[in-house]
What we know:
By secondary structure, the protein is an alpha/beta fold. It contains ten helices and twelve strands. The strands form three sheets. Strands 3, 4, 5, 6, 7, 10, 11 and 12 form an eight-stranded mixed sheet that branches.
Amino acid sequence: xxxxxxxxxxxxxxxxxxxxxxxxxxxxxxxxxxxxxxxxxxxxxxxxxxxxxxxxxxxxxxxxxxxxxxxxxxxxxxxxxxxxxxxxxxxxxxxxxxxxxxxxxxxxxxxxxxxxxxxxxxxxxxxxxxxxxxxxxxxxxxxxxxxxxxxxxxxxxxxxxxxxxxxxxxxxxxxxxxxxxxxxxxxxxxxxxxxxxxxxxxxxxxxxxxxxxxxxxxxxxxxxxxxxxxxxxxxxxxxxxxxxxxxxxxxxxxxxxxxxxxxxxxxxxxxxxxxxxxxxxxxxxxxxxxxxxxxxxxxxxxxxxxxxxxxxxx
Length: 314
């Protein structure tokens, strides 16, 4: 039978998350000796070592992995019970936490959150922001219920995802650039977008993203396919920074077509489809395989699904 101290799962999960007793204690607002004492008592009570202290950062032992899985299952059972109580009471309230990039959140949430809050005023939506390669740890440590990412995304653990649709990847150029003005004289497609000849980007000034970001990988694939070498004079993690630079400099960048939903976008930008067929990627909702999705989480996922069902111009 587990004692009260063993049930303090938050302490254990924070040690796993940070891989460091001091950092975990700081995040929990407790002292390092308090957290160290907790861990020693937990291991003594269970009669087995959970954390390998010889590693930096700290790592789980085989027993630690077993206990971690037990904790995650226990938390899911608690959440199921809470959901059932709320359903019986007809009182839908709680929290959903979603992970997405800072740029995507700045556009996506204003587009869907007002209507969602009107329907579900007692559901709080939390956002964990980052870039594509930072969300593995967030899902592994149970920081997020799910993430809105390009798929397939490759993680070190099993995941489940639902594809929502495709987003085109647009070339974005400063409208005063001679090549932009040249492209603007071309024919308009059925969707109202003009095409840009990728080969024109050879040796042109280009704002790139950082290595490891999914959009950066797509940029490199496009350049390789069309055998062009832009002058990538700057790299940033933030698409907003790239767009603002293109807005004031005679250069180019790339961005997902979601930017068409941006409130008050920079005014000196022109958007173009690139590639034949137009270059795009799949977007989806992804979470750990087997993770419990509460009724509240599923309601918010349904709102996201509805947005993409209606967003035919993506």
